[in-house]
Amino acid sequence: MAERGAHLLLSLTFLLLLLFTTAAKSTDKGSVARHFTPFWFLVEPADILAVRGSPAVLNCSAYSDLAPRVEWKKDGTFLNLASDDRRQLLPDGSLLLTSVVHSKHNKPDEGYYQCVATVDSLGTINSRVARLTVAGLPRFNSQPDTLMVYQGDSVVLSCDVNLDLVPFTRWELNKEPLDLDERIISLPSGALVISNVNESDAGLYRCIVEIAATMKASDEAKVEVLPETGMARQLQFLRPPVPSSKVQGQDMLMLCVATGFPPPRIQWMFNDKLIDSSGNRSKLIGGGSLLILNITEEDTGMYTCLAGNENDTLQASAELMVQVPPQFIKRPNNIYAHESMDIVFECEVSGVPSPSVKWVKNGDAVIPSDYFKIINEHNLQVLGLVKSDEGFYQCMAENDAGNVQASAQLIILEHAQAAGSGPTPSAPRDVVASLVSTRFIKLTWRLPAEPHGDNITYTVYYKPEGSSRERIENTSRPGELQVTIQSLMPETKYVFRVVAHNKNGLGESSTPLKVATQPEVQVPGPAPNLRAFATSPTSITVTWDMPLSGNGEIQNYKLYYMEKGMGNEQFVDVGGLSYTINGLKKYAEYSFRVVAHNKHGLGVSTEDVVARTFSDVPSAAPQNLTLEVRNSKSIMVQWQQPPPGTHNGQITGYKIRYRKGLRKSDTTESTGGIQLFQLIEGLERGTEYSFRVAAMTVNGTGPVTEWVSAETFESDLDESRVPDKPSSLHVRPLVTSIVVSWTPPENQDIVVRGYAIGYGIGSPHAQTIKVDYKQRYYTIENLDPSSHYVITLKAFNNMGEGEPVYESAVTRPLSVPDPTPMLPPVGVQATVLSHDNIKVTWADNSLPKNQKITDARYYTVRWKTNIPANTKYKTSNTTNLAHMVTGLKPNTLYEFSVMVTKGRRSSTWSMTAHGTTFETIPNSPPKDVTVVSKEGKPRIIIINWQPPSEANGKITGYIIYYSTDVNAEVHDWVIEPVVGNRLTHQIQDLTLDTPYYFKIQARNSKGMGPMSEAVQFRTPKAESSDKMPNDQASGSSVKPGGRHSGDDFATSVGKPSLSGNPTSMGENNIPMIVIVIVSVGAFTIIVVVVVAVICTYRTTSKQKKKRAACKSTNGSHKYKASSKDLKPPDLWIHHERLELKPIDKSPEPNPVMTDTPIPRTSQDITPVDSSLENSIHQRRNSYRGHESEDSISALAGRRGMRPKMMMPFDAQPPQPVISAHPIHSLEKPHHHYHSSSLASPTRSCLHHSISPRPLNNSICHIDRVNSSESVRNTPSTEPLSIPGQSICSVEHPDPDTGPGFLSTSSEEETNRNPPTAHVRPSHPLKSFAVPNSSGTSFESPVLPSTPLLAQAGTAPQLHSVKTASIGTLGRTRSPMPVTVPSAPDIPETSKMLEEVESNYEPDELTEEMAHLEGLMKDLNAITTA
Length: 1425
Hints:
Layout: H1 2-31, E1 39-43, E2 48-50, E3 56-58, E4 61-64, E5 69-74, E6 77-78, E7 87-89, E8 95-97, E9 111-119, E10 123-134, E11 147-150, E12 155-157, E13 169-173, E14 176-177, E15 184-186, E16 192-194, E17 203-211, E18 214-217, E19 221-226, E20 233-239, E21 244-247, E22 252-254, E23 257-261, E24 265-270, E25 273-274, E26 282-285, E27 289-292, E28 301-308, E29 313-330, E30 335-338, E31 343-345, E32 348-352, E33 356-361, E34 364-365, E35 372-375, E36 379-382, E37 391-399, E38 402-413, E39 429-436, E40 441-446, E41 457-464, E42 471-474, E43 482-485, E44 493-502, E45 505-509, E46 513-516, E47 531-536, E48 539-543, E49 556-563, E50 570-574, E51 578-581, E52 589-598, E53 601-605, E54 609-612, E55 623-629, E56 635-640, E57 653-660, E58 667-672, E59 677-680, E60 688-697, E61 700-704, E62 708-711, E63 728-733, E64 738-743, E65 754-761, E66 767-772, E67 777-780, E68 788-797, E69 800-801, E70 805-810, E71 826-832, E72 838-843, E73 857-865, E74 874-878, E75 882-885, E76 893-902, E77 905-906, E78 913-916, E79 927-934, ...
Parallel strand pairs: 2-10, 11-19, 21-29, 30-38
Antiparallel strand pairs: 1-4, 3-8, 5-6, 5-9, 7-8, 9-10, 12-16, 13-14, 13-17, 15-16, 17-18, 17-19, 20-23, 22-27, 24-25, 24-28, 26-27, 28-29, 29-32, 31-36, 33-34, 33-37, 35-36, 37-38, 39-40, 40-43, 41-42, 41-44, 44-45, 44-46, 47-48, 48-51, 49-50, 49-52, 52-53, 52-54, 55-56, 56-59, 57-58, 57-60, ...
Helix pairs in contact: 1-3, 2-3
């Protein structure tokens, strides 16, 4: 005891020292962590306009934790500021030009400047580029001229100068500065506009350009103002609008100066919409020019100036393009990375025009290469990082409106050491290239010889031979032993190596593998000199030259073409070098490209070229022609443009034709531009005129509209007030409509331009309809039957609506018969797509042949499953002829039907369609796992379980995992496969007095489900048959890491967990340390004493509990159980066939307890022949390898065998087996050998004393064949311990009465295959065997053994049974008699089990079995008679 205490004290001291060391290392590691460093520009240089001889400053300031060094570039070249007298670097980094130098032939200071900031330990960043412009010498491109202008007109005085001189330009009148306002404005070119001229504007004008001390004046121009004569002057533009381009945020002045008499009225249109010039952002200045403040991208478009007076109308258009400087939508982010990785810097920008993007690394431009690539237009991808790639990367975006930059830092980290101190994997083995193509290579390898753990992942390093940049590719999931390397170059040699890593870190690298990609197929290059030009309004000719790199004879060309803005590209095959495409749209833009084709395939496509077909006359007439009578002599004609796609060119104007009455001669007037109205004057009073309009292009006039007529007034009526109310209003109601009629107002001197009819249920303001002034009646349609409507009628003119007149009416009732039902959908089909999705489709005979739905019908899909029987329907509505039903259960049969509904009409439900969802892996583990020891066989245990709650398909097998260490890795557990849906299995050759842990995993056709929780069981200490192990814990679940024994507890106490702060140790804490050590020592001594007491108590108090066993003595069974004894199923007599059948019918098609030997290798699955017995030991040696039976334990042997074990779950055994089937007919005996669905050897039934009688007293009867099958052991002990199983009991009769045979069958087994032995009855009743005269007592049946191999032989002997039985480790076993179980019953509920438990004790069960024995004797007597 004292020695153990001393050892514990030493362990404690060692743990404290280890804790101090670990904390110190953690502190050291944390101190060297790398972080991103702030480094950016506070101020960047801006564009400036400098004056010659004056100073200029370009501002720049950078920020970083370390002081940056600032330099300047001009036109991409660094400036040497140290030797420059005129340029100086200011302390904040700005550049000062003390005196700007600029002349006609020497412009050293004008150009593009860029600020460059550098921190030696980090990197370099560049600022945006700023432009320095120097104003030139004063110079006039045009001089003002002397003008004479009428009072009220507008005048323009020219003074055009360069744009850089406009800010320095001003005007003088009579040598006095001229003040500008909204009437007098200066244009962007420098010209002066004076609108609405008056006498005070007369005088001498001159233009002044003044820069610094230099001033230059233009020639003087005299403006003379003439009095207005009142005579008409032609309308004309002095300055029409011109196309312009401005940067967003600036102010824009669109010119439009017109003159004429009467003075013109100026209006502006933007994209066919009239501009409100009284708004906040736009106003008219200078007599008609449009000023737009703070323009935005939305202001881009076509602007049209409309100038009109009573005599003429003019218009002129110009386009405004608003440029938007580049703006970052997404800036690049700082990145941490390791060497050999691939990274992407993202950069997303917007602007008008679209910005160009370039990347800069540490101040130098990044040149695209194999390792630096521009992807997705703007992003930078760096492949195979190396240490030198560290630094700052900048995204520089530029367009005509400006440029911006954004930077990000890249830090390359060293590979961190793993936290664990365990070993790392060795190098992966046998790295080979299993597939080599032109641009990808697939690598495969084998597991390292020393993986040192689970979840091994792999990294492939590769590079072109001779390159220093190595890239990496990781496997997609742990344990994967292959990877495909993409995006390689053709005909290039690459070097590959593979590294495995576990939780402890990277392992050893494999030997480098050199592989060359294949050469790429030689296809043609792009065709040069691709040209396209229009040859007519509907055709375009395309020409090209032969590709320079033909790589073989060109077979043909594919000419692709597509209308711009459309997505449907078409192509034609061309044999020559030109082609004319006909049938194109008129005045439409098309894009073309050509691809050459040779024997290797299609080549490289050319770039797109664009061409537009010629324009033509419009192919449609203008729309919505309307006439408005203004007075007795004029009519306003209005219309809309022809439909889109029919213009066939730019509309240049419209031609209006009109005639009086029905005369054939007509008069023509034309409009210009996009004007959509025309006032026709000079007409006769009270005369009807007809009008029609046609659109014009440069090619001519298109189709005309139909004639539309209107009559001028007899006299000029009054329109200074609204009309009077109509003189009368009459209504006539129908079922769904009301006919309204009226008479005009009594006062005919007021203009009436039309009538407004309002109506609604209870209110006349719900809807309003306007009709022509000539109309006297109108029918209001689409009304509701039996509804009260209020109707109002008002006359209106340009002044407004007059006084209304009211009337009401009630529509007539509707007598509609009940709607006839619709035809139900037909052809309903259910297509299974997955384990939870089924697509339902159908057809509708009430639709047209194309099955296109054009009305407001919808379909209702309903579905249900019959399990359970009372399941309710689920429904879903859709407007299509198909519906996806989701959220279904796996492996479940569903029925579907469809109904169609349209309005109030519905169909009946359609014929049903059925579909069974696919299987999927089980979602739950097997349940109710129990482990018991076999009576008299302490080294053999029996494990029972129940199927998973959510099997999601037919269970095809189970895998039993067991180990002595619950915390062991999964691959270290021993596995026992169980094929089929058996629910019990026995495991033998276990070590005595050893705790085992068991887990079970279910499998179906889709894969393995989850494992059950571990169940603990301790084998007995001795092999005494009357001593059963303590199975108290057979049903307990054990989670990994759990402890169950006192020894384990003592072990855990011996390793206490200590924690503390090593940095707080000092001289002042020495007394505290002494107290801690003494306390721990005392605590250790106390723990040792407690553990000793617990161990002593545990040894003296251990109890061994016995499990139930079924023994047959003098023809009766005795049940011994530690938990429950259940009543066997009641039996009933089928008097017609005299068969003994169980009352409960089980739907389970498979036996509960059978034994399925699993071949240890794929070679074990062989047909049974006479050489099988000789090959048994060879197979066993193949399974065991070279290990001897004495060298390893049973459990160790299983572990050693695991890597060589193969489990063909779905394979069918080739050898014939005797399987169990129900007796389908009593008339003909069945003679069949069936291949079992389990991967097992053949099974047979044991025969005892065989008499010459047709039937003997064997446990199960087989057909007479010249072969013997190995024993299939069937459990008979505690068969009801698992719910859902039934018992096939065998009574052992007394010697004087003879044995009887008890058979079971089920009436509902037509579609199932329960394992019941085939019987050939020769007695007329064909149901019961006649007992043998001499009875034979035999051993209690035992549970299945793994494995049992078939043995070939002759016909069965009369008094002996030969079986071939090989144990797990190759030991020969004695023959074991078996019974054949019946199909399991329907699983019993817990309530039924409780009743059985409470009603039957062991003595009562013995009495029941004795009663059953008597019943068997009576039955035997009946059959004998």
